[in-house]
Amino acid sequence: QVQLVESGGGLVQVGGSLRLSCAASGTIASINAMNWYRQAPGKQRELVASISRGGSTNYGDSVKGRFTISRDNAKNTMYLQMNSLKPEDTAVYYCNVDAYGSGWVRGAYWGQGTQVTVSS
Q1: pLDDT of residue 1
Q2: I need a labelling partner for 84 at 20 to 30 A (CA). Which of 10, 19, 34, 119 fits?
Q3: What is the pLDDT of residues 46-81, one digit of tens each?
C-alpha cells in the first residue's frame, strides 16, 4: 500500500508564496505520474499540475507561469512551488500518484489534502 502525506499549506496574503510537499511511503515499486489537484468549496476537483517520472510537466491554464511542480524520485517526494498567489487559488490541495505498490499492483493513490487560503 502507498501512503501520501501533504504538507506546506497555510494562510498567505495575495501575491505571496507557498511550497507544498507530498511524500510517498509504504511498499512502493515505482511511481509513474505525480499530480496536484485542488478543490475549492462548491467546485469540482481540478488538475493543477502533473509531472512524469522523467520530469515532463503540465499545468492548468489558471496556474501557468505562477506554479512550478517538481519531484525527487530518490525521495519519492513531489513539490509544488506556488508564487503570486491569488484569492482564487484558495482550495484544498491534494496529492495524487499513479504507482506500483506491493506485488507490482498498479493503483491511483490520494493524500488527505492540505488547505491553502489566500487572503486579500
Answers
A1: 86
A2: 34
A3: 999 999 999 999 999 999 999 999 999 999 999 999
CB atoms within 10 A of CB 96: 20
- Take residue 17 and report the three cell numbers written for it: 508564496
d(CA 61, CA 44): 16
d(C-alpha 49, C-alpha 63), whole Å:
8
